[in-house]
């Protein structure tokens, strides 16, 4: 099998980016009418919609925690999101796993003790898939949680990095992801620099790990700036509207 | 999606409709503003996003894939026809009730309704087109073997009442946006055929008969009156609802009564007539919107300007 050349001799990647370059991120909040908070994020060609409901009375009495809120994450993939049309059932193990990653990422950041006996739902919907869905989902969920006014200690910013041929590369797209590159996704709290999620599914030499992780960390800081700008712009817009 | 309504709210809506004024200031036959954008999902053959001003937000995609023809074992029908496969999915972002398996019933109901109207070939006539007017024969590549299958997927992202009408408006717009690659069939002799898909993005087929696709108008009977484009609260007061599918020439393409109340026969005919008139004028409006967008895209393409779709950034 002939492999795609992922890094040109000039040091450019398949989509023309430099190794340390992120794809374009555009985002907005408050896109839905029914949800308490919502956000839409485009990360290159990956498009994600996040909706947050709550805090509200827990649906199942058995799950109620008397001292804090429970987080519930549901993850859906549109059948037309990938190149080949594919329907996924609600019990797809892969989707459940992604949902639990997102849940674990947010549990230490959302101040759940403020909302005892209640439930916070995060619904994620992938509309278009082009690599890096987990990072896009976490970033969109952060924005939706902020839009819903849920207390958090910090933003959560996620970013992937990997080792493409001979050097570390930030933010892998679908072609790079699917051609056997090792990829690490981390989620970070930008203020303290703490990492709340590390996920890697392929092999990477331990000597290279540090480079990749520090690159992903840089990516997270950059994503934080982008998200923060959107949030502040939207808040200013809201303040302006309310002043009239 | 609210599931409960107080007696006072119900009374307010009922009396309002009796006086021909609704909670949001509309009259009984008034639709809310419909916002339509096509070509929003780049990896599909055609897509559209439709929004109704009160919140309903639906993304419809059409994907054309090659597959084997489906022959009816009893009648031997279908050997020279393509297929349209529909599915509707209500995302939990639209309503908390759609979480987990909560939307399954509604998904099935909407999917069945769409399938009936879009892909069933009319039993009485032997014409090649489906009830929706789409020429299925044009979708066939090699008779008896391969055909184009159009997968129509509707995704309900936000709920503000009147899902059915919005889904059909979106589907119609997505089919208008659909481009199918041209194919070249080679005859190898002794009944053997081979085909090649030409991947020229400029030279593609449109879906034949797309102008005749119907849209749905849902009429909600509240008290002795009926209204169109109900809001979520109005839907809760609805005794009976009637879905009328109508195409641009005013032909009835489907009819379904829902909910538990009854409709008097005289009122039924009046409602169908009413739905037909509204449907025809709505199709005119939608066609103008689709045409305006297609023209502006074409102009930009000819001038070499980038086509920028707003998608979710439209406020």
Automatic annotation (TrEMBL), chain A:
Q: Which InterPro entries match?
A: ExoRNase_PH_dom1, ExoRNase_PH_dom2, ExoRNase_PH_dom2_sf, PNPase/RNase_PH_dom_sf, Ribosomal_Su5_D2-typ_SF, RNase_PH
* GO terms of molecular function: RNA binding
Q: Which UniProt keywords apply?
A: Cytoplasm, Exosome
Q: Which domain of life is it from?
A: Eukaryota
Exoribonuclease phosphorolytic domain location, by residue?
Answer: 21-150, 154-218
Places the protein is found: Cytoplasm; Nucleus, Nucleolus
Q: What is its main location?
A: cytoplasm
Q: Where are the transmembrane segments?
A: none
Tell me if Cytoplasm is a UniProt keyword of this record.
yes
Give any single GO term for biological process: nuclear mRNA surveillance
Q: Which GO terms describe its cellular component?
A: cytoplasmic exosome (RNase complex); nuclear exosome (RNase complex); nucleolus
**Pfam entry (one):** RNase_PH_C
UniProt subunit comment: Component of the RNA exosome complex. Specifically part of the catalytically inactive RNA exosome core complex (Exo-9) which may associate with the catalytic subunits RRP6 and DIS3 in cytoplasmic- and nuclear-specific RNA exosome complex forms. Exo-9 is formed by a hexameric base ring of RNase PH domain-containing subunits and a cap ring consisting of CSL4, RRP4 and RRP40.
Q: Which PANTHER family does the entry link to? A: EXOSOME COMPLEX COMPONENT, EXOSOME COMPLEX COMPONENT RRP41
Q: Which family does it belong to?
A: Belongs to the RNase PH family.
According to UniProt, the name of this protein is Ribosomal RNA-processing protein 41
This protein's species is Podila minutissima
Q: Which gene encodes it?
A: EXOSC4
From TrEMBL, chain B:
* GO CC terms: cytoplasmic exosome (RNase complex); nuclear exosome (RNase complex); nucleolus
Domain Exoribonuclease phosphorolytic as annotated: residue spans: 30-181, 212-276
Identify the keywords attached in UniProt to this record, alphabetized: Cytoplasm, Exosome
Q: Name one Pfam family in it.
A: RNase_PH_C
> Where is the protein found, in the record's own terms?
Cytoplasm; Nucleus, Nucleolus
Q: Which InterPro entries match?
A: ExoRNase_PH_dom1, ExoRNase_PH_dom2, ExoRNase_PH_dom2_sf, Exosome_comp_Rrp42_subfam, PNPase/RNase_PH_dom_sf, Ribosomal_Su5_D2-typ_SF
Q: Name one GO biological process term.
A: rRNA catabolic process
Name a GO molecular-function annotation.
mRNA 3'-UTR AU-rich region binding
Q: Which Gene3D superfamilies match?
A: GHMP Kinase, N-terminal domain
KW S-adenosyl-L-methionine (keyword) present: no
Query: What's the family?
Result: Belongs to the RNase PH family.
Name of this chain's protein: Ribosomal RNA-processing protein 42
């Amino acid at each position: 099998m002939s492999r795609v050349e992922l890094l040109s001799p000039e040091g450019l990647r398949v989509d023309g980016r430099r190794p340390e370059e992120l794809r374009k991120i555009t985002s907005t909040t408050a896109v839905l009418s029914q949800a308490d908070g919502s956000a839409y994020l485009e990360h290159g060609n990956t498009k994600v919609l996040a909706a947050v409901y709550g805090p509200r009375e827990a649906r199942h009495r058995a799950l109620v925690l008397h001292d804090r809120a429970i987080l519930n994450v549901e993850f859906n993939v549109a059948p037309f999101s990938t190149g080949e049309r594919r329907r996924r059932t609600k019990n797809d193990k892969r989707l459940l796993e992604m949902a639990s990653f997102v849940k674990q990422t947010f549990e230490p950041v959302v101040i759940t003790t403020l909302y005892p006996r209640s439930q916070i739902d995060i619904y994620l919907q992938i509309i278009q898939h082009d690599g890096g869905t987990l990072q896009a989902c976490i970033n969109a969920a952060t924005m939706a949680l902020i839009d819903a006014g849920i207390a958090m200690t910090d933003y959560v910013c996620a970013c992937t990095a990997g080792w493409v041929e001979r050097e570390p590369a930030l933010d892998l797209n679908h072609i790079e992801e699917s051609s056997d590159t090792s990829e690490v996704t981390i989620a970070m709290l930008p203020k303290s620099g703490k990492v709340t999620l590390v996920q890697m599914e392929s092999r990477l030499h331990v000597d290279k790990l540090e480079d990749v992780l520090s690159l992903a960390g840089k990516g997270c800081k950059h994503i934080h700036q982008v998200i923060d700008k959107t949030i502040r712009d939207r808040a200013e817009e809201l303040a302006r509207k309310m002043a009239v | 999606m609210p599931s409960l309504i107080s007696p006072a709210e119900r009374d307010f809506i009922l009396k309002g409709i009796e006086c021909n004024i609704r909670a949001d200031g509309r009259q009984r036959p008034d639709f809310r503003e419909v916002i339509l954008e096509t070509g929003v999902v780049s990896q599909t053959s055609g897509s559209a996003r439709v929004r109704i001003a009160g919140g309903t937000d639906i993304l419809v995609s059409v994907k054309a894939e090659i597959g084997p023809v489906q022959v009816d074992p009893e009648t031997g029908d279908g050997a020279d026809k393509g297929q349209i496969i529909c599915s509707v999915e209500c995302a939990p972002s639209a309503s908390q009730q759609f979480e987990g398996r909560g939307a399954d019933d509604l998904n099935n109901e909407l999917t069945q309704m769409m399938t009936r109207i879009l892909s069933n070939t009319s039993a009485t006539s032997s014409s090649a087109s489906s009830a929706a007017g789409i020429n299925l024969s044009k979708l066939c590549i090699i008779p008896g073997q391969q055909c184009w299958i159009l997968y129509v997927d509707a995704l309900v992202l936000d709920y503000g009442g009147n899902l059915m009408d919005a889904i059909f408006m979106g589907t119609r717009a997505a089919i208008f946006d659909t481009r199918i690659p041209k194919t070249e069939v080679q005859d190898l002799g002794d009944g053997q055929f081979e085909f090649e898909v030409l991947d020229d993005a400029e030279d593609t087929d449109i879906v034949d008969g797309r102008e005749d696709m119907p849209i749905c108008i849902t009429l909600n009977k509240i008290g002795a009156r009926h209204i169109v484009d109900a809001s979520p609260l109005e839907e809760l007061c609805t005794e009976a609802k009637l879905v009328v599918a109508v195409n641009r020439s005013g032909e009835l393409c489907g009819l379904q009564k829902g909910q538990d109340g009854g409709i008097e026969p005289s009122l039924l005919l009046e409602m169908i007539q009413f739905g037909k008139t509204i449907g025809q004028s709505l199709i005119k409006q939608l066609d103008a919107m689709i045409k305006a967008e297609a023209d502006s895209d074409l102009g930009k393409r000819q001038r070499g300007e980038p086509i920028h779709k707003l998608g979710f950034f439209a406020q």
